[in-house]
Amino acid sequence: MAGVSPATVSRYLNMPEIVASATATKISEAIEKTGYVQNLAAGALAGNRSRLIAVLVPDIAQSIFNDTVEAMIEALSRDRNSVMLALTGSDNSRLVREINMALAHRVDAIVLTGIVSDEETRQKLRAAKVTVIETWGLAEDPIDVSVGFSHTAAGEELARFLRSRGYRRPHLVVPRSPRAERRAGGFISRWTHDGGQEPTRLEVNVPSHFGQGRLSYRALADLPEQPDVVVCGSDWIAQGLIVEAQAAGIRVPDQLAVTGFGNLRLAGDMRPTITSVDIDGAHVAREVMRVLRARALDEKVEPLIDVGFRVIARESA
Amino acid sequence: MAGVSPATVSRYLNMPEIVASATATKISEAIEKTGYVQNLAAGALAGNRSRLIAVLVPDIAQSIFNDTVEAMIEALSRDRNSVMLALTGSDNSRLVREINMALAHRVDAIVLTGIVSDEETRQKLRAAKVTVIETWGLAEDPIDVSVGFSHTAAGEELARFLRSRGYRRPHLVVPRSPRAERRAGGFISRWTHDGGQEPTRLEVNVPSHFGQGRLSYRALADLPEQPDVVVCGSDWIAQGLIVEAQAAGIRVPDQLAVTGFGNLRLAGDMRPTITSVDIDGAHVAREVMRVLRARALDEKVEPLIDVGFRVIARESA
DNA sequence: CTGAAAGCGCTTACAG
DNA sequence: CTGAAAGCGCTTACAG
Q1: Per CA to C1' distance, which residue is closest to C7?
Q2: Do B87 and A73 lie within an 8 Å CB cutoff?
Q3: What residues approach strand C to within 7 A at the CB?
Q4: Which residue range is the domain that position A183 belongs to?
Q5: Is residue B52 predicted with pLDDT exceeding 70?
Q6: Over 70: is that where the pLDDT of A198 sits?
Q7: Is position A238 within any domain?
Q8: Is A24 helix (H, G, I), strand (E, B) or coil?
Q9: How many CA within 13 A on the CB side of residue B110?
Q10: Number of domains observed in the structure of chain B
Q11: Minimal Cα distance from A252: which residue of B?
Q12: Is residue B198 within 8 Å of B184, Cβ to Cβ?
């Protein structure tokens, strides 16, 4: 020890600006000398603040959320928070299980990708009164706060964009997720509303990946009429589809146009570069941090935060 | 409450087999009824066991470790452990910072991808006597336990393989990471030892990605002599290189062979399929779990666990 | 700006 | 198989 009470050390660690600078120096020297490491578990118990944020994602091996999650983890780390990362698959029981674990660890907040559909879990989360942030897709009735964009609007915008470029026979490759489903819904309703005929579609499993793009290209052969543009549920699918098309001697976009979704780095790097829809992961992360900070200070926050999206026009469509 | 002491509830929660089944039923009913959620922070403080495992990776947006990390998170979750995921970049200061956070949270173990080079941090980690597992690359002198494979051996094996296939002018595309460096070292020493001449090489930044593959292909034009095979530091680079080569009208592997590293899903899906080196992420995860369980029971574990690797011969080389 | 004291919710020998 | 009791290492009003 360096001549001060535990209370003062605690203050130094958590609000250094509040202790006298002479005291601060003594404490910091003592910490240096003894190699003292603060026990955050004890801090969590006493202060009711764990400095742990749970982030739940379906997977990380092949996830369109990774950029966003990475930006979030980095921002949280800068605020001296740590991230409990949990994997939920596309399976409700795992989601529930991981939420329970997070609650048991008394995390300060739970960040979810996608919307929780199970009503019982929504109830439980509300009751637990942790901060719950649903990200990526904008919830219509958020459990607590939702930061994201409208999948439906993104689908609509893509329909408008492709129509304005003169495409007439879109084919949709739709991953089996509620999110992709919504985008497809938005696309179709806008497309038909604007006078286009009902697009053809193919469903693929999640997580979507490059290989599905190749298969999706081959599946085009079964269509009664060939599309002039394929609207893919992810950039990976788009990439695989382009590679397979080119291997078959088809020129993209001249003979077949392609769009992706997510605006991953590879979309800009691919040859041809891939027209995609960008969601600004850093922006999502920033808004999440803003909510978290506001909550830490007991300030009010809007329940719905729309970060929008942008169609990025490139060579492929 | 349901007529029992806190001690008994604690036993029920942690070792259900040790309480009488009548008691167990009463407790579980009470838990159900009240919606009680165990406080793991208090448990950590009292029992000196946080059920938190820190996993440190350079990044997740584009990481060759993702499969392994995913397998590890899933396995840990099955054992009722949660994962604190921290991002270190390729920057020592962030590594140190995140290790300190993990220590402050009193994690039960720290899993590192790659080897910690900083001697002071190694010291600190040894002193903290948490379980420390260095994964992926096999450490020669592990801090505690290392689970992985020899990068040098992987490079050597690839050299042997390509030589046996008749290639004579390899060109290496090497990410600037100690790991890739080692593989390159192994490749070169084996190659020259077997009578080949010193391969040409190009260094690229980490994290490696598709776009670098395209650039790496173009950079071949500057070489005095054209290679017959390009040995890429990751499957992404290989994929980008193939796409660019094909766009230039070059046939792979007839006119130029290509190998990747990591055996990502896309390696098997690409057209042509990509010859790569597989590290079994599930195997790594399994061994990590074995170490963790052994430590929980105070059993001895070998400090070096070699999970090996396999060259996967496919169409591209 | 700092200290004394209570308390956060568990776990774990120790008894029985 | 179960309970009483101490203690884990902090934080936070409350005083001063």
Answers
A1: A46
A2: yes
A3: A 3-8, 11, 18-20, 22-23, 42, 45-46; B 6-7, 9-11, 13-14, 36, 38-39, 42-43, 45-49
A4: 151-278
A5: yes
A6: yes
A7: yes
A8: helix
A9: 30
A10: 3
A11: B247
A12: no
